[in-house]
């Protein structure tokens, strides 16, 4: 195999592990997590890591982040559908690495919402909204350390979806008390998302698909599926009325014994402007040739 280009200290290193149930951190180095926040800078930088490496960095200290469990992963799927389709959203990538502080910090929230350049490398900007999923086995101390770093970075809205116990979402914003939104509640991010987000749309694919349908309709200018159906129904009625008027024009010309060339008949039948058809119907009663109807 090709040589590992990462620094020697990261090759094969596993300073912290996570289990398969979606918990990002387990206590292999939990006692050190609180030290990272105020300790001297660690030896690593984000530009020493490759896309796909299973590490985050906290002030230069590596934290291993491995695979998610089924419930956690399905939450990513539902949340991404809901958030990425919002009419105000540019993108909602999963596990996008955010770097700052001379690349001594590299954090990858489960989901972020914002506008990002389609270029290789870590994201140096500050997304306005980030989402973390917390499942069983979650190292709470390390999670809180990560949340603190993201809020200090300037993220406006930070949602923590709690998958153990009753479904709920903790909402964090800089300088404000944490708010708890229950399973049947809605989440809002003014200035970031146009529509409210049902809590269940972050974990339940069927609810997510309903929210996604609403969002996609809104993107096309429709308030709801019912509004689209009403518009299509109105279009159908108008088209039916237009076809009826066109056939009436042709019937009047035929009754008067006037020959109607196929191009003239095709133009009359293709017209959907009711005012024009009304005018042509009046002319059909007096013209000496079918072509004069269209003049």
Strand % is: 5-15%
The total count of strands amounts to 11
Mean pLDDT: 84
End-to-end gap:
79 Å
The number of helical runs is 7
Uncertain segments are 1-7, 12-37
How much helix, percentage-wise, in residues? 25-40%
Largest sheet, described in full? 5 strands, mixed
Written as H for each helix and E for each strand, in order along the chain, the element string is: HEEHEEEEHEEEEEHHHH
Structural class: alpha+beta
Radius of gyration: 30 Å
Strand order of the largest sheet: 5-6-7-8-9
The general outline is elongated
List the helices and strands and how they pair.
Blueprint: H1 30-38, E1 55-58, E2 61-64, H2 70-84, E3 98-100, E4 105-107, E5 111-113, E6 129-134, H3 140-153, E7 157-162, E8 168-172, E9 179-182, E10 186-187, E11 197-198, H4 205-219, H5 225-255, H6 262-270, H7 274-284
Parallel strand pairs: 6-7
Antiparallel strand pairs: 1-2, 3-4, 5-6, 7-8, 8-9, 10-11
Helix pairs in contact: 1-3, 2-4, 5-6, 5-7
Any overview of this molecule?
The chain has 295 residues and is α+β, with helices and mostly antiparallel strands. 35% of the residues lie in helices and 14% in strands. The protein is built from 7 helices and 11 strands. The strands form 4 sheets. The chain has a 5-stranded mixed β-sheet with strand order 5-6-7-8-9, with helices on both faces. It has a two-stranded antiparallel ribbon with strand order 1-2. Strand 8 and strand 9 form a beta hairpin. The longest helix has 31 residues, at 225-255.
